[in-house]
Amino acid sequence: MANENTKRATNELTAESTETSFSITRREMLGLAGVAGLAALTGFSSEAAPLPQHKKVRIACVTTYWAATRSHADWIMCKLMDGYWWQGAHTPSRVEVVSVYIHQLAESPLGQKVCKAKNIPIFKTVGEALTLGGNELAVDGVVIIGEHGEYPTNLKGQWMLPRWWFYQQMIKVFEQSKRSVPVFNDKHLSVSWDEAKWMFDKSRELNFPLTGGSSIPVYFRKPEIEPDIDTPIKNSVVVGGASDEGALFHCVDVLQAFVERRKGGETGVKSVQCIRGPETWTWTQQNPWAANLLESVRKSFDLKPGHFQENNRPNVCIVEYNDGTKAAVYNGEGVGWTYAGEIDGRRDPTIISMLGWPGPFSQYHASNSQPHWITELMVTKKEPFNAERLLLSTGIVAYNMDSNWENGKYSAVGRRIETPFMNMSYRSVRGAQFSQGARPPDTPYIRGFAD
């Protein structure tokens, strides 16, 4: 099992590092206004009992595994330590990583080496990392990176990474300290909607800003545009590597980043369904809106007719929203991550792609724009985007993975799962958040920018 999981982690790193091919893994087979009032009633505050003033915001990082040089732990934490490339220039770090917890410490020699070089203590428990070995919360922010490492996969193909367990340990410290701080959670919150909803609810109950998700929505774009808020989006398609749960989440988070800007705002998800194999194309033919948007993506890349249908492992995640808006996420190659939206009153679809490397391989593709927004969260104590988006993206992926399984039996044509509990509504107020300007130089990254 260990060798299998190591191979899977390597494959996922490869999948996230290319625009045209995605490794097939074993997993494929198988309201803020009320928060202040609640805080007043509970005596819980993100501002209570302020820490002594420090030059930088102090961060605790909690991760599963830190061995591969381009694992999520490596690129996120090193950029928080050393600064990052943003909008065409290197930005010095505005936070200080003061403690680290590594769940699979023995398997993480790189993390041990970096922390030793930076004089950052590695603690034995999540609680100790947040309290710096004391009795109360002693940091200004928490970064959870539950990605990569030796973890099992369940029957549905979900990688059982301990994000929820990390979060539980953190909440214990917040509650005993009667104080909370901003939290970033890499990728989806959990494999379970119930766990993810609990995580979201705790952020509101204990009055702390929460963000996370995929790095792709803030990736470089072509063209460099952001749909206006209240754009009359009717239907949407996202095409990208969606061969397994982790890769699918990137695509779903891209979808949510666009559709939340539709007229009237987000209304919540009515149903989710997953179809795999040749039946993917039967469903597509029966739904002209999806077929037309998929064809518009093919033509925009000048790909040959039938390009996407040649995929030997096709699948589609079908999402219906409460306001009648529809969306489909396809596993497809050759287009990076591409969004296509049918806009009311416009003849042609709006197509926006996230393509290629945002810089040379030496700087790793996702290691700049996301740490920028992590830093903004920690410094401003405000969510860069609504945490509801992270929750809905998590729920869509969870029920997509559920769809093909019922009572332990698999069906390529998954059941349509109604999701009345995903009726979250909100209006996006964010501006453009994606990377722009010159891309990073081809400078070897030796735990910091080498001049």
Describe this structure in words.
By secondary structure, the protein is an alpha/beta fold. The chain folds into two domains: 2-217 and 363-385, NAD(P)-binding Rossmann-like Domain (Rossmann fold); 221-355 and 391-422, 2-Layer Sandwich (Dihydrodipicolinate Reductase, domain 2). It has 13 helices and 17 strands. The longest helix is centred in the C-terminal third of the chain and has 17 residues, at 387-403. The protein starts with a helix and ends in a 33-residue tail after the last strand. Mean pLDDT is 87; it is low at 1-43 and 48-52.
The main pleated sheet reads as: 7 strands, mixed
Classified by CATH, the class of the largest domain is Alpha Beta
Query: What proportion of the residues is helical, as a percent range?
Result: 25-40%
CATH homologous superfamily classification of the largest domain: NAD(P)-binding Rossmann-like Domain
- What is the CATH architecture assignment of the largest domain? 3-Layer(aba) Sandwich
Strand content: 15-25%
Give the CA-based shape.
globular
Task: Give start-end ranges of low-pLDDT stretches.
Answer: 1-43, 48-52
Task: Quickly count the helices.
Answer: 13
Number of E-state strands: 17
Q: How far is the first residue's CA from the last residue's CA?
A: 42 Å
Average pLDDT: 87
Spatial sequence of strands, sheet with the most strands: 14-13-9-12-11-10-17
Number of domains: 2
Radius of gyration: 21 Å
Order of helices and strands: HHHEHEEEHEHEHEHEEHEHHEEEEHHEEE
Backbone structural class: alpha/beta
In CATH, the topology of the largest domain is named Rossmann fold
